[in-house]
Amino acid sequence: MNDYSCATQCTWCDGCGDYGIWTAMKRALVELGHAPHQVCLCFDVGCHGNGSDKLQGYRFHGLHGRVIPFASGAKLAHHTMPVIAFGGDGASFSEGIGHFVHGIRSNYPITFVLHNNCNYGLTLGQASSLTWQDQPMNSSPNGIPEHTLNSMDLVFALEPTFVARGFSGNIPQLTEIFKTAIQHQKHGFAFVDVLQACPTYNHFATHQYLLERCYDANVEGHDPHCEAQKARALALDTAKRIATGILYQREDVPSFYDRLIPRKDKKTTLVEEVKKVDVVEFMKEFI
Ligand code: SF4
Ligand code: MG
Questions:
Q1: CB 44 within 8 A of CB 67
Q2: pTM for the full model?
Q3: CA-proximal residue: ligand 1, atom 2 (nearest)
Q4: Which among 109, 116, 173, 284 has the fewest CB atoms less than 10 Å away?
Q5: Whose CA is closest to atom 3 on ligand 1?
Q6: Which top CATH class is 2-286?
C-alpha cells in the first residue's frame, strides 16, 4: 500500500466518498500484485480527479469528459497493461456521454469507475443529469426541470459485458468488485458504478441513506452470468433496496482489441513496435 502512496495530501472534504474509493482501488491493485509502474490510471476532471497526484502509477489527468478516449487509446497501444479510468457522473453523462456510450458499445478493454455522487461537486454543487429531480442544488434552487437520467437503463441498452455497483462506504466489497473489474479487461469494458457520498452538496443520497439500502446481491445468490434482462431489472429496482456487487458479466464477446484484424496473432504491443521511419522518399510524391 505504501508504494501507491504519494507525499501530496488529499484535499477532499471530511466524509467524502472519494476516500473509500481511493483506498479500495489501492487495495485491489496490491492484492492483484500490480506494482505502480505496471498500471495506467486515468482521471477525468472532478473532485475525484484531484486524486490523480495522490496515487502512484502512470497517471493522466485530462480534459472534462474525455477520460475514456485517452484510456482506451493507452490500452490499445499497450494492451497488456491494466488501464483504469475514473470519471464523475457529471462528465460521464453530459460532456463525455458520447465517449461513454461508445466505450461500452465498442467493448474497449478497460475498467471504468464512475464516481457517482449525483452532482458536480468540484464546481460547487451544480445539478448533473443524475441529480434527483426536485432536489434543490446551487445552480437550480427549485430543482432541475428535466427528469433524472436513468444511467443503469442506458448502460444495459448498450449491451455491456460487465456491470457492477458498489458503495463508497463498503471498502471490503468495493475492493473485491475492483479486482474482478480489473481482471475483466481481458474480455472488454468493465463498468463499475460507485454510489458515492458527497456530504457537502448531496443531501439526498447521503452516506446514511446508502448504508441503509445497499445490499450485496451476490451474497444473496445473484449470479452475474444470468440473462441481461434479469440483471437489468435488478439494477433498476432501487425503490426500497439497492443491489450492489457484480450485477452482470459475460466473457464470450471479443473486446475491441481482439476484433482488430491487423493485430491478429501479434505477440508484441504497439508501444514495442514504435520505430523511426524515414519518410523522405515517400514525401517526394507530394512535392
Ligand atoms: Fe467530496 Fe463532495 Fe467535497 Fe467533492 S464536494 S470533495 S465530492 S464531499
Ligand atoms: Mg459528480
A1: yes
A2: 0.96
A3: 198
A4: 284
A5: 13
A6: alpha beta
DSSP secondary structure letter of residue 12 = P
Mutate which of 10, 12, 52 for ligand 1? The one with the most ligand atoms within 8 Å of its CB, which is 12
CA distances (Å), origin 202, targets 1, 43, 124, 195, 239:
30, 22, 11, 11, 18
Q: Residue 225 class from Cβ within 10 Å (0-12 exposed, 13-18 middle, 19+ buried)?
A: exposed
The yes-or-no verdict on residue 244 having pLDDT over 90 is: yes
Mutate to test the pocket of ligand 1, among 201, 206, 207 (most ligand atoms within 8 A of CB): 201
How many angstroms separate the CA atoms of 266 and 260, rounded?
Answer: 11
Per-residue pLDDT band for 287 (boundaries 50, 70, 90) equals confident
H/E stretch holding 171 reads helix 171-183
Domain residue ranges of the chain, discontinuous segments joined by +? 2-286
Q: Which atom of ligand 1 is nearest to the CA of 11?
A: 6
Residue with cell 458498489: 166
Give just the sign of the alpha carbon dihedral 256, 89, 148, 14: positive
Pocket of ligand 1 (CB under 6 A): 12-13, 16, 18, 47, 117, 121, 198-201
